[in-house]
Amino acid sequence: MHVVERDQFVFSFSGNHAPVLTVQSGDRVVLRTNDCFSGQIRGDQDLVTSIDYGKINPATGPIFVEGALPGDVLKAEIIRISLDGQGVITTLPDIGTLIHHSEIRSKLVQIREGRRVQFSGRIEFECAPMVGVIGVAPSEGEVACGHPGRHGGNLDSSCIAEGSSVYLPVFVPGALFGLGDLHASMGDGEICGTGVEIAGEVEVRLTVLKGAQLAAPVVETKDSWHSIASDHDVLAAIRQASEDMQNMIVQRWELTPTDAYLLMGAVGDVQMSQCCKPCPVETVVRVRMPKLEGMPGLAE
After folding, report:
1. CA-CA distance, 68 to 237, in Å (whole number)?
2. Which domains does the chain have, with CATH numbers?
């Protein structure tokens, strides 16, 4: 089992970053992660207005996967997510639909027995661990880990949880995979700009799918497929995610574009991942399709 420690991280996805680990296709790796604030918020008195924003959303990695080449797909199976014992929820200046009548605040919360969030003396709820940032290097330049894109990045999608698989298009040799920004829980839309931000570790299996030719991130869960897209215009993001799903149905399941469109209208869902507007980060949406009998997976 390979292990990448939380002091081996980057703040952007880029083909220029030197890998911290090289693995073979099919290898399992444990990535130990910092929280999205790089541990800068240690108490309720530590507000986001006083931290270094240059240290936001570190991704543990990058990992070079042997055999991964442009035009391939990297499959990252989320085998296990383990959480640290304390997380934090914050409001952010000028971000979120309700910030105009909310205070800037940090709230530390305890994780009870690794499975429940103690929000207050009276309120607690089940953890729903998920990965916020997951991706590979883009084809050129660099993209800050706090931003989403066709390479992945800050997808903030609750479906990226234990038991799911994330399929990422490969743009550079080795893919240069990384992840971070764990949440003990995060509501769809991340309405205040954060979920329960927390450090922890994630065990993944990284597998190269040769010549699979995927255009953008896709997430597979036990019962569904999710195409993920982002844009500052929410309607443009929905359109892109819908086109990506339509293309996948046409290419993989051999339906006509119109039949795919009809099927999406019958059983598909548009779901919000991150929409804490106003916000400099693009809105992230996903289109969900249930797994139906006779429809093969991406690796088949």
Report:
1. 28
2. 2-209 (2.60.120.580), 218-290 (3.10.28.20)
